[in-house]
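Bit of a strange request maybe. I'm writing a small parser for structure token strings and I need a real example to test against, not something I typed by hand. Could someone generate the tokens for this chain?
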Amino acid sequence: MTTVGRASATKIAAGLILCLLGGATPGKAWAGPDAVLFYTHPAEKWENAFPAGNGRLGAMVFGGTAEEQIQLNEATYWSGGPYSTVVKGGREALPEIQKLLFEGQYKQAHVLFGRRMMGYPVEQQKYQALANLVLSLDATGDVSEYRHELDLDTAVITTRYVQDGVRYTREVLVSPVHQVVLVRLTANQPGRISFTAQLRGYRNTAHSNYATDYFQMEGQGSDGLVLRGRSADYMGVGGKLRYEARLRASATGGTVRVDDDVLSVSRADAVTLVIAAATNFVNYKDVTGDPAARVEQVMKAAVALSFERLKQAHTQEHQRLFRRASIELPATENSKLPTDERLKAFDGSNDPALAGLLFQYGRYLLISSSRPGGQPANLQGLWNKDMNPMWDSKYTTNINTQMNYWMAETANLSECAEPLFRMIRELTDQGSETAKEFYGARGWVQHQNTDLWRVTAPMDGPSWGAFTTGGAWLSTHLWEHYLYTGDTGFLREYYPVLKGSAEFFLDFLKPDPKRGWLVTNPSTSPENFPAGPANVKFFDEVTTMKTGTSLTAGSTIDMEILRELFSEVAEASSILGFDPELRGRLTAARARLAPLQVGRKGNLQEWLDDWDETEKSHRHISGLWGLYPGHEISPRETPAFAAASQVVLEQRGLPGNGWSSAWKAACWARLGNGDKAMENVRYAVGHYTTTSLFSICSNAMQVDGAFGMSAAIGEMLLQSDGGEIRFVPALPQSLASGSAKGLRARGGFEVDFRWQAGVLEKATILSSLGKTCRIRTPGSFAVTSGGRSVVVTQPEAGVIEFATKPGETYSVALAGSGAGR
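Reply from user aminoacidic:
Good idea to test on real output. This should exercise your parser:
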């Protein structure tokens, strides 16, 4: 949404009250090597600028001294408008495509899919850049004592330096409370702040004309500017979105004036700039909002308050979320280096605190780009400088969108996943039409990508668009939320979404003629082209390039996702007392799904047949979905498949990109190999990480890798799948000692714990649901609550269990360690 609605405002107010009552964790020295990024120079390119955001408005801050650039985004500013990609009657070609794939006629199936089963338009809409605020600063002379800093704990970006004997300070924040971007300029001498400011819009030169994609700027009065624009008419959908951005300046001392499109400040003591922006977006079907009225509402409220009050409200609301969880690891001399130098020096072991910074950076990005009532984090989170960004900066659901939210529950940011949950429900709208028209099925389906308008049909080309389990994968996030929170109200609300996804696949699955297993057909293993005997290159009519095909039947990832989806929906129906007949059908179908298989090289097969991949170190490791983020494979329960998964990880090696490294690290963590997990973290830091800690894919910023690193580091320290908690289950040697606070485990547990020399010393566990707590950990542990001993059972070696009560806290201490004192 483009402005704070009543429900969101209530949530924010409640959060502020919580902070004022002490809800934010007190007493921690947050501004250390695990919570601060800094340079001794301005950012030299956009990817290295520091990000700030409130879930709706985003800013990238460069920290210049002669010219400061603050690039701006608004989460609902996309090309196009409400549209549908559903093509009537695509299902008529489906039986022939399925027959061809079962017969091994992959090229023919690919061509027919491209002609008859692609959505129209074949592409989707693009996330757009909004504007740049450019400050031309009048001070001259050499600059010294420069520091450009992002404090993750306060969500304030500060630039400090001395020039011509004057100490200048510039602060930038994006307030989630007052819904504005704030820039504060001060100096330690009066009358020394002079600059000009412009709001500069963007034109989409590749996909627009003067009638449908424009921006204009005009003076707003003596203290401000206004910028207006319209989104691009892309693929004939029509640019339906309008935006407005306003800048207001308030100065202490000096003068402020507007000349045409330039705001000038002369000889001020201090200046506060307030930027408000909004679009006419209401929801994915409605663009009848009034951006000018929305901007006026928030601007009027913000300019009535001092910068100090605005900053205080912003910081308290940010810390309400950020201070819930932390990881503390030993700092070294390298930890004190500027962030760009720190990354260059990192060898995997010489700066343990860097892992804590990566974990907290992911949490900071999620708080900044995904808040209740807003849009989910897209491929670039919230931050985008282009009108034609790489991969349209949309929602890619064959790994990237899901990875953005892997860490949300464990990292104690559950409500930051609300935009994702709402998007999943919105996808069922066109998703049900796509299921009907393309597959003749009930329920709903969503493929490889979607955008602001929640389109669901196959797109880009058959090798990418035929991934039918994108929506099913998204649906597993709904169940994960229930496992962490035990919220039956949430489960009841989203049960129709889960049920609809399962119903689609009950209709879609076909028996494989050779083996009798139920399989998806068509199917792909995302973006990986198998080296099958019939996979020869040919001219693809849809992509207009020479290519092979990824189309097949029953890819391993499909089967892994569906085994979990069917189990989850069956269990949800049992918990809620719904649909016993459906429960039986799901259980029966699950038992017939194609099983996991080990190939001739000892690898977990990625396809039904034992094929190699055409690209040796392919970035996707889709066949390992059942290891992570799924729960089908584990060293203890399925050792043969765990060993086969390790073969795949070793074969794929380290190269890939930022998100690929994060996925590999998380998989190694699930296998219990912390050193291999850290090896992938180190490789990503050295090869795929900007100095601002963003992730890189094909030389373009993608936010998913930063989120994925946070998830992978969390997985090294805490795992809670399989109905048990495992502390430090995949600890690298470089992280042998440390502590963590506020992490969440499935079953409704919140945990603080510390470890020494690779061994858990003590854990404090808050039980919110009152479930039995089962912990798998070596050593002898005593459990107390409120100073009293708790009865503990040991069902097997290395496992302890004890009953809990809702709201009670339990201390688990290693016997003889003195940890309980």
